[in-house]
Amino acid sequence: MSSQLAALNQWVEEVARLTQPEKIHWCDGSDVENQLLVDLMLSNGDLMRLNEETHPNCYLHRSHPDDVARVEHLTFVCTSEREDAGPNNHWMAPAEAHAKIDALFEGCMRGRTLYVVPYCMGPIHSPLSRCGVEITDSPYVVANMRVMTRMGADALARIEREGTFVKGLHSIGELDPDRRFIMHFPEELTIKSYGSGYGGNALLGKKCHALRIASHQARSEGWLAEHMLIVGIQNPEGETHYIAAAFPSACGKTNLAMLIPPEAYEQAGWKVWTVGDDICWMQAGEDGRLWAINPEAGFFGVAPGTSSKTNRNALDMLDHDAIFTNVAVTADNQPWWEGLMVGEPAIDWRGRPYDPANGPAAHPNSRFTVSARQCRSYSPHTEDPQGVPISAIVFGGRRASLVPLVFEARDWNHGVLVGAAMGSETTAAATGKVGIIRRDPMAMKPFCGYNFGDYWAHWLSFNREGAKLPRIFHVNWFRKDGDGKFLWPGFGDNLRVLEWMINRVKGDAGAVDTPIGLLPHHRDLNIDGLSIGHADVEQLLAIDEHAWHQEYRDIADYLDGFGGRTPELLRQECARIRGALAS
Ligand code: TSX
Ligand code: MN
């Protein structure tokens, strides 16, 4: 046996001694294995079969009602120095954290099966990919990891060949919110998660590994692990430009990744290719460009709001071989959620007869899990070991006022400031008040595995001799007029904005220089066929210098919150813009 597999075996034995499972099962990722797990879950109530005529091989999972989302207040980054985790993370000393969570793991798998889940984040033969092993006592987690990652024998073979892997230990425990922790030990490439069976808390390859641990690792190895979709835009000339975009939750990342062009664009020959909808790993290639892979193999998307109008590509991939979590069902046992626009709920997400007095039928954070291969727009280049070259990075947020539809950063350093200054208005789904602006730098607030100050310095470090960096843009699809009506139609029509970006990259489009960045003149945006007035376009592209001055005062205060770790270059950039706005 290779020394790597010996190390893995030793860890599995250690965990088994601690957790006392009845059985140990090494997952190979095969169809036969999956069928056995599905059958087990159908018999123990973890899964229910959905309508076999309309939705073959589709299943519904109902989570514990107290276990329906990520839990930021119970999520810790455990570095030896508190300052390395930064004000953006909850921190606990590693020894204390291990002691605390190991006490919960003690004997927690008695009478249960321990599953060993080897997985690869990214194409199995890509040098940008990284492997991990998740130990879990949840067959639901195994079934989801099989869809979301390259799981099983091939990943195990790569681990054996390669050496290091991220160790993830997970148990659903008692599903008690008071006995729940998600702990990260980036210096040990280790994750320990106890007491939740839900998404990002339990599918450790996703947020825990591919973002929190990977961002830490990427900093020391010189690459980027980002909370970004990746989409390829093919123009009528047949060139494809790849765009990576970061948005906070509830801004429609999955919808943009699967965008359907307006009819006139489709007829002219435009095509949109989905590479990923949530996570992007990027590295400079020998040509100086940034090359990106999607470390995931599936989509774990929010169901409510998904319809044939908002995202036909997503809806079309959900009628076979999909796992649904916490959605409602119709009288004939089809999955249903708010915003689906067809059918009616009969049973709500908790399994009760639907009653509007109990709130929405589907949980607002209900999900689908589906293989990316089922997406019609899935890019064939997603499997390329070298990744895809990124032409543009897009940051964005939900802002009813102030922030224009689109602007371009002057240069890389300005773009990093634009990313660091990202903010979004809270929606009803998030805790607390609606319409409050929350800073969410690069959409990484819940996911950066180290101090944001160091993270911005790492971003700035990519601006070096020989680099051919992507242009950086900022968008806001959510600008409203005085009557509270959205000014921009959004969805497929966002391609008009992406077209301007691509033309900027090619040097074919005009822009107006302003203190906050470069904006399209209204003639630079193609609005043919849109029922949008000239005045609305002017409003979408206008800059209120007085209000921006206030915004930049807030941004400067926010950056100061990271003290000495905030790069001087960002402060200077901020001061430069404040000066330009004041004059
Ligand atoms: O996903 C969205 N995108 C990106 C699409 C590629 N949403 C949904 C956000 C919640 C996840 C949007 N909502 C977008 C958008 O561009 N824009 C809006 C706001 C909006 C909502 C409804 C309309 C227009 C804009 N309806 C009509 O104009 C008829
Ligand atoms: Mn996400």
What does this structure look like?
- The protein has 583 residues and is of the alpha/beta class.
- It folds into three domains: 3-48 and 74-222, Phosphoenolpyruvate Carboxykinase, domain 1, CATH 3.40.449.10; 226-297 and 380-582, Phosphoenolpyruvate Carboxykinase, domain 3, CATH 3.90.228.20; 298-374, Phosphoenolpyruvate Carboxykinase, domain 2.
- Helices cover 30% and strands 22% of the residues.
- The protein has 17 helices and 29 strands.
- Strands 1, 4, 5, 6, 7, 8, 9, 10 and 11 form a nine-stranded mixed sheet that branches.
- Strand 16 and strand 17 form a beta hairpin.
- Helix 2 packs antiparallel against helix 5.
- The longest helix has 17 residues, at 3-19.
- The termini are far apart.
- The model has no long low-confidence stretch (mean pLDDT 97).
- The structure holds ligand TSX and manganese (II) ion.
SS-based structural class? alpha/beta
- Termini separation comes to 70 Å
State the low-pLDDT regions, or none.
Answer: none
Return Rg in Å. 24 Å
Helix content: 25-40%
Quickly name the level 1 CATH class of the largest domain: Alpha Beta
Proper CATH architecture of the largest domain: Alpha-Beta Complex
Strand percentage lies at 15-25%
CATH topology (fold) name of the largest domain: Phosphoenolpyruvate Carboxykinase, domain 3
* Integer average pLDDT: 97
Quaternary form: single chain
- Count of DSSP H/I helices: 17
Number of beta-strand segments: 29
Structural shape: globular
Bound ligand species: ligand TSX, manganese (II) ion
Largest sheet: 9 strands, mixed
Number of domains: 3
